[in-house]
Amino acid sequence: MSKLEQRRPAASVPPTPHQEAPADLNIPDNYVQHTLKTTKPLPPVTWSTLLDNINWVSLLALTLSPSVAIYGMFTTHLCWKTAIFSVFWYFVTGLGITAGYHRLWAHRSYNASLPLQYALALAGAGAVQGSIKWWSRGHRAHHRYTDTDLDPYGAHHGLLWSHIGWMIIKPRRKPGVADCSDLNNNPLVRWQHQYYIWLLVLMAVIVPTVIPGVCWGDWKGGYFYAAAARLVFVHHSTFCVNSLAHWLGESPFDDKHTPRDHVLTALVTIGEGYHNFHHQFPMDYRNAIKWYQYDPTKWFITTMSFFGLASHLKAFPDNEVRKGQITMELKKIKAKADDLKWPTTSNDLPIITWDSFQEQSKTRPLILVAGFIHDVSSFMDEHPGGRHLLRKNIGKDATTAFFGGVYDHSNAAHNLLAMMRVGVLRGGLELESEKAIPPSQRLEVMRGQALAQLRAQVAKESHPVASRADSEVGDWGDIKGLPSPPLSTGALNSEDEATEECTGLNLTRQ
Ligand SMILES: [Zn+2]
Ligand SMILES: [Zn+2]
User: Fold this and answer.
1) 3-state SS string for 408-456
2) Distance of CA 130 from the midpoint of ligand 2 (Å)
C-alpha cells in the first residue's frame, strides 16, 4: 500500500485486557475511496452463474415461511383470538428489532435495564433476522457507507436489491468496516449470539404455537398464523426500512443521500419510516419527532422509561434539527427562485453619462429612477397612473416621484421597473461638474497620482457604481452607432490644477 493511498492512520491505542479493540481504529483516513479502489468486487451475477451465487440458507429461510403461511391459510381456519395474538406477536418480535436491535444496540440511542435487554434480545430472535451482533454490524455499515458499495444493502443498487436481493445473492463486496467492539464486549449480546438458533426456535416457532394451543386449543392456527404468517410480515416490515425508506417520500432534513420520510413506510415498519431524520440523527431514540407521527417504537421506549426500565433517552436538540429543515426549505425556495427571470444587475449594465442619457431619451422613453435608466416603452400604455406621468419624466430623474413623491409604488411595481433597466447613470444622478468640462479637456494626459486623486474624489461623491465608470463609461451595449461619450472624470473641478499636472504619460481616454 503506497503512502499516498493510506493516509494518516489513527494512533494505535491498545485495548484494555479482555476488551476487544475497535475494528476501525487503524483504518486510513481515505478508507472508503482506498477500499473501493484497491479491492475488486466479485464479477456481476449472470444467468449462467446464478446458481453458484445464491445464498441457499437465506433463500430457504425467506421462502419457507411464506410457503408454510400460504399452505396454512388454505387449510386452517383463523379464529379471532389467534388473529389478535398473531398481530400482538408481530409487534413483540418487531419491537425486538426496532427498539432492541436497531435503536438500542445498533445506535445506542438509550440505555435499557437488564430485564428489558433480555426481553428485547429474545423478542428480536423471534424475528429471525440474525443475532444482535450480526444485524448491528451490517446496520452500522449501512449508516456509515450509505449509498456506496460498502453499504451491505445500498439503495443505489435498486429497490429489489435493498429489500431482499442482498440476502439471497452472495454480496459482491464485504461490507465496510464498522466498529462493534461495544457489542462484542457485551455479555448479553455474546450470549444471544451463542444461543441464537435455540432462541430463534423458541421465540419464532415454539412460543407463538404453544400460547394459542394451550390457552384456546388452536395449535395449528398458532403455528400457521402466529409463527409462519407473522414471521413473513415481520421480515418484510424490516426489509422495507432498507428499501421503501430509501425510495419513497421526502427529504426534509438532508437530500445528500437516499433516505426518505414517509408515513406509509412508518406504518409498515413500526415507526421506522422517518428514515431521512433517522440517517441525520441516528443516535436519536426517535424516528418521528412530531407527536402525531406514527412511531410506536418511540412510544414503547418512552413507556419503558416511564416505568424505569429505560433511561438516558438521546434526543438531538430541536435547534439542530430545525437547522437541517430550514436548509432544505431554503434549498427548495432557491430552486423556485432560479426558475424566475431576475433584473440585470448594475454589474452587467452599461454605464451611461447624463449627456448620453439625454440624447437617447429623444428617440425612446428612458426614465431615470434610483441611478438606473429604464426603457419604459413596453409599459407606456400599461402604467396604472396613466401614460402622461411616464411621458413627463422621460429623460428625467423620477426617483422622488417614484418613491412616494407622486405615488409610493408597491413591491410589484419595483420588481417590474427593475426588469426595464437598460443602463446605469454614471454617478447615479446628474453631475453638474460633468458639464464644466470643456471639449478640449476630454482628451487628456495626466499623472498617475492625479488620476488616483480624481478617482478617489469621484468615489466619494458618487453612487458606488461610479467605481467602474472610468473604464466602462458610455458603453450602451445594445445601442449601436452612438458617438463615444465624454470620458474624463467629472470630478475635475479645477482646470488649472489639471493643467499643472499634465506632464505624465497616463492617457486616460481618447
Ligand atoms: Zn437506511
Ligand atoms: Zn439505523
Assistant:
1) ECCHHHHHHHHCCEEEEECCCCCCHHHHCCCHHHHCEEECHHHHHHHHH
2) 16
